[in-house]
Write a structure and sequence with these properties.
The protein is an alpha+beta fold. It has one domain (about 80-480): Cytochrome P450 (Cytochrome p450), CATH 1.10.630.10. Helix content is about 50%, strand content about 10%. The protein contains 17 helices and 9 strands. The chain has helices at about 5-20, 50-60, 80-90, 100-110, 120-140, 140-160, 170-185, 195-210, 210-220, 220-225, 230-255, 265-275, 285-315, 320-330, 345-360, 380-385, 430-445; strands at about 65-70, 75-80, 95-100, 370, 375-380, 445-450, 460-465, 465-470, 475-480. The strands form 3 sheets. A 5-stranded mixed beta sheet has the order 1-2-5-4-3. The chain is globular. GO terms for molecular function: arachidonate epoxygenase activity; heme binding; iron ion binding; oxidoreductase activity, acting on paired donors, with incorporation or reduction of molecular oxygen, reduced flavin or flavoprotein as one donor, and incorporation of one atom of oxygen. Keywords: Endoplasmic reticulum, Heme, Iron, Membrane, Metal-binding, Microsome, Monooxygenase, Oxidoreductase, Signal. It is found in: Endoplasmic reticulum membrane; Microsome membrane. It is a peripheral membrane protein.
Length: about 475
């Protein structure tokens, strides 16, 4: 018998076994939802227009909490701020688990702050939050590092001399450099070859995870893991980043001064030394590398994409950009860099940044699943951020959504771009600081221009797996007068 026939029979037998195993069990106590097919789950019932349209349609039929089968796996979807809060806040402990991402499982294996569970996760989260807040016991604050990076960006934009730019690369550089500064204790030049390699590996991996083949792997990883596919390239890429982190850890160990920790790696090494007699300690070499990988991998794309979307919206709505310019001149002036303390005096600018986050909605379906009673749970953040009960014109860009009658910043409980509960985004504080300082520093120094008239600029989001991206665009930065 030819080898090809044997391979065909082996694949056929594998599919039959999966089909038998893959028939979903009875729903038990799961919320209602469409009836799944064996192996495929509800895949064929998904709308061609995208997952969000599918979930919106299912919500109309089954209510704010419903079940869909992602292949053989049941997943509960939470829609609306009330359902999301009831689960993630009112029952925070029950929903604090983290489900698996199949394409990343061979790399992380439950290690690192994003994929750990139980007491392992609590210990790593407490340490990571405290270290990022305190940042090396009296060393330069995160704010100062963002301000420094913002000035480096301004110099880079000045070099363009008003030429058309695509912002994707530069915004990826600045957000990655903030994470590098916190974790590795240094920033990289935008032309540094090692830095460019790290960015390329990270971007390539994110793209593969979000791709159609990446999404198919998530659904059918039990079978597809044995064949070539995006999972193998993602594994190779993240191993390469891990190797870089490992080399950096070795250098830190050689130059470590216990009295003056420089960054997160130093702080971790000191904790490792302190707990070296504890065989069950979370502070070991593997967790150090994978925790650092988690922070680097997760800390670059989201803020970078939000900034890209923000400046596209400024081109579309030049009157909004002009009001921000005026508020910057009134509060900050032209000769000192923006600081976080300025934010409370700049309600319009703050409202604009809030509305950029709400409108862009770059993670409409919280990308990493929660876990409750061994069932994956996905909060549909889009259902809160675009809820007409909380936002008068949910599908329009309108900073007035966050301003009261007196022009003061207005809180809105449905504004949850970082999710809620115990698994709320670890980098929320840093991301907010980056958005304010980068946004205001750029608009303090430059006016914006587009080769396309505002009425012809397309701000419709592009769905990208479980996320959204702005349309590609080019922009000119024209230096403002410093009178």
């Amino acid at each position: 018998m030819e080898l090809s026939v044997l391979l065909f029979l082996a694949v056929l037998m594998g599919l039959l076994l999966l089909l038998v195993k893959g028939h979903p069990n009875a729903r038990g106590h799961l919320p209602p939802g469409p009836h799944p097919l064996p192996l495929l789950g509800n895949l064929l019932q998904m709308d061609r227009g995208g997952l969000l349209k599918s979930f919106s349609r299912l919500r109309e039929r089954y209510g704010d909490v419903f079940t869909v089968y992602l292949g053989r796996r049941p997943a509960v979807m939470l829609c609306g701020i009330e359902a999301i809060k009831e689960a993630l806040v009112d029952q925070a402990e029950d929903f604090s688990g983290r489900g698996k991402i199949a394409i990343l499982e061979t790399v992380f294996q439950g290690y690192g702050v994003f994929f750990a569970n139980g007491d392992h996760w609590k210990t790593l989260r407490r340490f990571s939050l405290a270290t990022m807040r305190d940042f090396g016991m009296g060393k330069r604050s995160v704010e100062e590092r963002i301000q420094e990076e913002a000035q480096c960006l301004v110099e880079e934009l000045r070099k363009s001399k008003g030429a058309l730019l695509d912002l994707a690369f530069l915004f990826q550089c600045i957000t990655a450099n903030i994470i590098c500064s916190i974790v590795f204790g240094k920033r990289f030049d935008y032309k540094d070859e090692e830095f460019l390699k790290l960015l390329d590996l990270s971007y390539q991996s994110s793209s593969l995870i979000s791709s159609f083949s990446g999404q198919m792997f998530e659904l059918f990883s039990d079978f597809l893991q044995f064949f070539p596919g995006p999972h193998r390239q993602v594994y190779k890429n993240l191993q390469e980043i891990s190797a870089f982190i490992g080399r950096s850890v070795d250098k830190h160990r050689e130059t470590l001064d216990p009295s003056a920790p420089r960054d997160l790696i130093d702080a971790y090494l000191l904790r490792m030394e302190k707990e070296k007699s504890n065989p069950h300690s979370e502070f070991n070499q593997k967790n150090l590398i994978l925790n650092t990988l988690s922070l680097f991998f997760a800390g670059t794309e989201t803020t970078s994409i939000t900034l890209r979307y923000g400046f596209l919206l400024m081109l579309k709505h030049p009157h909004v950009a002009e009001r921000v310019h005026k508020e910057i001149e009134q509060v900050i002036g032209k000769h000192r860099p923006p600081a976080l303390e300025d934010r409370v005096k700049m309600p319009y600018t703050d409202a604009v940044i809030h509305e950029i986050q709400r409108f862009s909605d770059i993670a409409p379906i919280a990308g990493l699943p929660h876990l409750s009673c061994d069932t994956e749970v996905f909060p549909i953040l889009n259902s809160a951020l675009h809820d007409p009960r909380y936002f008068e014109k949910p599908d329009a860009f309108n900073p007035d959504h966050f301003l009261d009658a007196n022009g003061a910043l207005k809180k809105n409980e449905a504004f949850i771009p970082f999710s809620l509960g115990k698994r709320i985004c670890l980098g929320e504080g840093i991301a907010k600081a980056e958005l304010f300082l980068f946004f205001t520093t750029i608009l303090q120094n430059f006016s914006l221009a587009s080769p396309v008239a505002p009425e012809n600029i397309d701000i419709t989001p592009q769905e990208n797996g479980l996320g959204k991206l702005p349309q590609q665009y080019q922009i000119r930065f024209l230096p403002r007068q410093r009178g």
